Automatic annotation (TrEMBL):
NAD(+) binds at residues 30-36, 56, 115, 138-140, 251. Residues 24-166 form the Lactate/malate dehydrogenase N-terminal domain. Its EC number is 1.1.1.37. One of its GO terms (cellular component) is mitochondrion. Substrate binds at residues 102, 108, 140, 174. The active site is at residue 198. Coiled coil: none annotated. Homodimer. Keywords: NAD, Oxidoreductase, Tricarboxylic acid cycle. One of its GO terms (molecular function) is L-malate dehydrogenase (NAD+) activity. NCBIfam families: MDH_euk_gproteo (TIGR01772). This is Malate dehydrogenase.
Length: 338
């Protein structure tokens, strides 16, 4: 666990790290939306992206034309609704931020019916056109949409657990930023492993595993407030935007950060470790076959799923509250496809 945290700390001070190996075609499904547009801009700046393919039911060609003017080498192409297959042709990484955003009073579960259908249909297209692509799911509720993608790929006979990821990086980003604010340190000194899922009580920050000694001094009411803010930080943004949207910019940043980590792993860089929601054996005995924990990324996608390590008594309680809720979310996603 210590080595994994060291790796995270070494790469957390900048959005993109580079590799000298081959570059990659990346497709964004939902590039015209509130997350998709800034995500596309950030991916255009990633030196490991050689070709950027932007798709949406509306607006993607315009986003592509705009982003294509950024002075980095990657080529950008935009595709309208009727050209989904063309957008996916030859792609190695697919990022899916497509879906409707949360509004005030909505939980991630409220988004389910609409976003579930969108994600299922996009997953079916990936299975048909680029069955070996690595798929990064941003569309909420991630606890359910990732199992939806997995089940859709299974039905098509092309599911590879090493190639499917739920992007939970925003929880990690928030945990580092919020902990730094409480302790008066830098976010780069506060790499927080975040396990579980990607909504409310399923988000379990492991503050006891942070190398920074000041993190261990956060106790009592301060600890409770910090954990709550990490779990429900998205509500702050929804409320502040007064119905006009959810966490789009920070989510785009987190999505681009995870995409870069995966690209570095695919390019052969060693020791790339970060939390992500994947098919996991850690709690399979409890009927929970998807779980976010520290995962080592490599040329095959998922190379190693790390154990969660020792937990504090508070974290044990958080995990206990997480598991039944997470199981329910996962089963809901599977049932939707079935």
């Amino acid at each position: 666990m210590f080595a994994a945290r060291t790796t995270l700390r070494a790469t957390s001070t900048r959005l993109f790290s580079t590799s000298s190996a081959r570059h990659t075609k990346v497709t964004v499904l939902g590039a015209g939306g509130g997350i998709g547009q800034p995500l596309s801009l950030l991916l255009k700046q990633d030196p490991l992206v050689s070709s950027l393919s932007l798709y949406d039911i509306r607006g993607a060609p315009g986003v592509a034309a705009d982003v294509s003017h950024v002075d980095t080498p990657s080529e950008v192409n935009g595709y309208a609704m009727e050209h989904l297959d063309a957008a996916l042709e030859g792609t190695e990484v697919v990022v899916i931020p497509a879906g409707v955003p949360r509004k005030p009073g909505m939980t991630r579960d409220d988004l389910f019916n609409t976003n579930a259908s969108i994600v299922r249909d996009l997953a079916a297209a990936v299975a048909r056109v680029s069955p070996t692509a690595h798929i990064l799911v941003i569309s909420n509720p991630v606890n359910s949409t990732v199992p939806i993608v997995a089940s859709t790929l299974e039905k098509a006979g092309v599911f590879d657990p090493a190639r499917l990821f739920g992007v939970t990086t925003l929880d990690v980003v928030r945990a580092s930023r919020f902990l730094a604010s409480v302790t008066g340190t830098k976010p780069s000194e506060c790499d927080v492993p975040v396990i579980g899922g990607h909504s409310g009580p399923t988000i379990v920050p492991l503050l006891s595993q942070v190398a920074n000694s000041k993190a261990k001094g956060v106790q009592g009411e301060s600890y409770d407030k910090l954990v709550y803010r990490i779990q429900f930080g998205g509500d702050e943004v929804v409320k502040a935007k007064d119905g006009a949207g959810s966490a789009t910019l920070s989510m785009a940043y987190a999505g681009a950060k995870f995409a870069n980590a995966l690209l570095r792993g695919l390019n052969g860089e060693k020791g790339v470790v970060t939390p992500t929601f994947v098919k996991s054996p850690l709690f399979a005995d409890k009927g929970i076959d998807f779980f976010s924990s520290l995962v080592e990324l490599g040329v095959n996608g998922v190379e190693k799923i790390h154990p969660i390590g020792a937990l504090s008594s508070q974290e044990e309680k958080l995990l206990e509250a997480c598991l039944p809720e997470l199981k329910k979310n996962i089963e809901k996603g599977k049932a939707f496809v079935a």
